[in-house]
Amino acid sequence: MNKVPQTVAIIMDGNGRWAKAKGLPRTAGHKQGAEQIRVIALAANRMGIKKLILYAFSTENWKRPEDEIGYLCKLPGIFFSRYIKELMENNIRVTFAGELERFPESTQKVIRKAVDQTKENTGLNLDIAINYGSRRELLLGMQAYAQEVAEGKRENNLTEAEVAQYLMVPEDIDLLIRTSGEERISNFLLWQIAYAELIFTPVAWPDFDETALQDCIDQFNHRDRRYGGLTS
Ligand code: IPE
Ligand code: IPE
Ligand code: MG
Question: How far apart are alpha carbons 197 and 115 in whole angstroms?
Fold first, then answer.
């Protein structure tokens, strides 16, 4: 039995603690964290995962100090200038979930360019969630739906299956991983994880490598997903 989950979501947590343990500034943890995005995206692509959704910046992370936010805004530029070629060679498509307008124009430009350059790729979809919060996502979806109804564009007859089309991430999640030991969801993909398998690993994100990912996939393979029914 060796199923590969189609959609994997990761709450990339622990960059700050990883850096602190080494006597380094928190930004050093974010720098190494960005390197692991490359490592894990390439590994997920090889394994045949269809979509990898990485939580990089939440709607609540604006509470952090300005210099930390400033560094995080620069990371997409550093990351894509270094790795866009490799992402192309590996047929990886990059997308983003979240309200990008709140980021500096320079950051938005780098992001739009990466999305545009990789849009024809058919391998892994690497979806990076920034300024993403699931409550905000649900609220925006509800507002869009209400407006369509008010304008007479559709009947007020929404089905569960149709909810996805109003969300920033439409897919159901098979496997959700959170690194660095915290066991909470922190406003990530609340609708989409209804039947996800959850794995909380003590490994900090900057240390989360291909072996750690494979270990999570192995655990996933030993789970019995019953969806409310009985074991088959
Ligand atoms: C995750 O690491 C990255 C972001 C939330 C941007 P943290 O920065 O939350 O690291 P810890 O949790 O403080 O160790
Ligand atoms: C969740 O991590 C958000 C990201 C990984 C981007 P946080 O570190 O912000 O979550 P809390 O504050 O510990 O819940
Ligand atoms: Mg954290």
Answer: 29
Nearest C-alpha to atom 1 of ligand 2 is from which residue? 186
Is 218 labeled as catalytic in the residue annotation?
no
pLDDT at 232: 65
How far, in Å, from the CA of 60 to the mean position of ligand 2?
8
Active site residue 13: yes
Q: Which of the 8 DSSP states describes residue 156?
A: S
DSSP single-letter state for residue 190: T
Query: Which ranges in 62-104 belong to alpha helices (H)?
Result: 66-89
Residues with CB under 6 A from ligand 1: 12-17, 57, 61, 72, 180
Q: Can you list the pairs that 178-184 forms with residues at least 24 positions away whose Cβ atoms lie under 8 Å?
A: 178/10, 178/11, 178/13, 179/10, 179/11, 179/12, 179/13, 179/14, 179/203, 179/204, 179/205, 179/208, 180/13, 180/14, 180/17, 180/18, 180/204, 180/205, 181/14, 182/13
pTM over cut 0.90 = yes
pLDDT 10s digits, 98-115: 999 999 999 999 999 999
CA-based diameter of the chain, in Å?
59
Phi, psi (deg, nearest 5) at residue 58: -95, 165
* Number of alpha carbons in the 13 Å side-chain half-sphere of residue 173: 23
